[in-house]
Specification:
Layout: H1 6-16, H2 25-53, H3 59-74, H4 81-96, H5 111-124, H6 131-143, H7 163-177, H8 180-196, H9 202-214, H10 218-229, H11 248-260, H12 269-281, H13 311-325
Amino acid sequence: MKKKTAAEWILAAAILVGVTHTLDARDGEAAMHKAVQLAIPLIEKSAATYVDKRECFSCHHQALTSMVLSRARLAGFKVVDDSISMQVRFTLEYFKDRMDRLPGGKGVPGGPYSAGYALTGLAEAGAPGNETTGALVKYLLKMQQKDGSWRIRTHRPPLEDSHFTATALAIRGLDKFGDAGKKDGPVKRALEWLEKTKAKSTEDHVFRTLGLHWGGSDKAVTEAAAALLKLQRKDHGWAQVPDMASDAYATGQALAVLRECGGLKTDSPQYLRGIQWLMDHQKPDGSWHVKTHSKPIQKFFESDFPHGRDQFISISATCWAGMALLP
């Protein structure tokens, strides 16, 4: 049997969800490509503006942008040469200034969550290990809890709200940049915590699945991915928490993670319908808009991403949606 192309699956998804317009195979493939390519310049511009206007590392403008842009480049999309290396330099310079405090468990305002996201972004960008990444690893080893987890310090949903996020990102950072003999024990304890701890929000489920996947706990990944898949709504999207509507942040990250860990086949109705949800909710400018629900902790500034005071969660959603739509 001849295998369907990605475009043919998008056509199948359009039929399955009963959309009023239909796409032939060529149009479907072009639409997916256009959705990603439209988003890339917005992400690049805002990430560059953040570096110009701010001095502190962020998950939304350094780590997530490095993740989606690096993956897009690997998939053959046009990415400005310096857009990824700029974020790598910014991240390393920020933490290099704090190297003397990191081994003692100090010097990271966002705690293990920020340190983990920094190392994950560097790993996705292909940055080699150095003294700064080594100091960040020592910080994470110092900050691991007795139960094996890493803890979030502030609760500003959905990005900065989950112990699962902090724990999964620490696993990723240790796996990429940690010394072979010293990381095994901490990662094992972290996996045990992930396996036995119940997830509540979609963010919990996403990073529980990712952490188990990054740590190589194959059997537990299958169970975690199935639990995440069950959260898909009747409208085919995902919501941050049960009493909220589906949005691009939760939908993008759920689809990207389920595909990465093998928890959802790309020819399945659930996957195709989720992709169609993202396609239907992208704005004409290439972004996805998500309304913020967290109180600001810093003075507002314009980062050249659409949606005003919702721009930080919206660029995060756009990064996740882009990763979900990449070939």
